[in-house]
Amino acid sequence: MNAPFSLAKSGQRDAFVAFVCDENSAETLRGVAGDHGWPVEKVMKGGLRNAVQTLSVSASPHILFVDLSESGDPLNDINGLAEVCEPGTIVIAMGQVNDVRLYRDLLSSGIHDYLLKPLNPDMVRESIAQAHALLHAPKAAEASAERPHCAVAIIGTRGGAGASTIATSLAWLSGEQEKRSTALLDLDVHFGTGALGLDLEPGRGLTDAIENPSRIDGLFIERAMVRAGERLCVLSAEAPINAPIQTDGTAFYQLQEEMRAAFETTIVDLPRGMLVAYPHLVEEVQTAVIVTELTLAAARDTIRLLSWFRSNAPHVTVILVGNKLQPVANQEISRKDFEGSIERKLDFAIAWDGKLAAQAAKLGKPLAEAGKGNRALAPLIDLSRHLCQLHDADEDDDGKGAAKGKGAKGGTSLIGKLAGLRARLPARAKK
């Protein structure tokens, strides 16, 4: 378990130590320990409390088995264990409670695995084998040094434009298609869907970070993020809606900094309200993807966002994505009129497929995964590839035309643009 720790300890680290509450579990673990050539006396009596007391004054092992059977509050007690474990310790818990939510919560807290008692020797061996593989795997930070870091903010012009859906799919594509270690940071603390869209419990990592920004470091990130795949981790939240978040934004900025060190790509689902409240969040962002529908309100806010980036973040490459495009007969505004009003072309356009969207929601999968092979998602896949190319080279390799700081021109007022757009609307749309 990777967690902050400050107590002085001495001695070399053992390969394996276990703290168990019953003799049957002890016998099973002694047998497995003997198979690996580990001292069987490292299987000790006593559960989680004994583990905390012992490890507070001695070096942590590489692999730690701990029995939760006598713990009245396993999640809280695990946090106590985290305070005395040294970085790099892999913790495997065991217990008698067969509950999916407990299992997920334990994994979210940093536990590697949770085994039910009575212990099955084969399952113990499999869990240890996975722990060994993790111990010897290259660290994300080492992999990230091979390619430039890709930091992307996804911003919707209006609620319901589909920015969160696109953010989740881009994060998934970055890991699966581009083979990059990827972090998805969902900054909608109360209503974010980053974890929900991947069928995950969000955990408390993001709210803990906001409440205690001083704790944020590489070890905190490794422990707080929820793994969604081999190369994708998520940091999201479902904070109580009766508890306003009190922060100056420092925690969000620090999270981005730590993710930059640990991952090759960071996808930030950035609510437009957060952009207003914490403009410094885009200081380290290289690309902003503005997601919009073709409506009058969206045209107004697209103009405003493009102008904001031109004035406040000229270093950011702005990519404009038209999402949920309807058949011409159902459009509030035609693509030609929309582009004319904002004085800019859409860089990518994604058609609306209600059936696919419903299927993805039911499966708890990102749109890009649920719709593999669907031609309607080709622009989304192209967008993902284009984002990576932007950060692997000094200039745009795709020729899509996204430009740094590109925004709406200043020759016509916002009111004038919208008035002209209204004048071009079909009569049926004005009623």
TrEMBL record:
Keywords: ATP-binding, Nucleotide-binding
Statement: the UniProt record of this protein carries the keyword tRNA-binding: no
Recorded superkingdom: Bacteria
UniProt-annotated stretches for the region Disordered: 394-413
Xref: PANTHER family: SEPTUM SITE-DETERMINING PROTEIN MIND HOMOLOG, CHLOROPLASTIC, SEPTUM SITE-DETERMINING PROTEIN MIND HOMOLOG, CHLOROPLASTIC-RELATED
Name the UniProt record assigns to this protein: Pilus assembly protein CpaE
Provenance organism: Sphingomonas hankookensis
Lineage: Bacteria, Pseudomonadati, Pseudomonadota, Alphaproteobacteria, Sphingomonadales
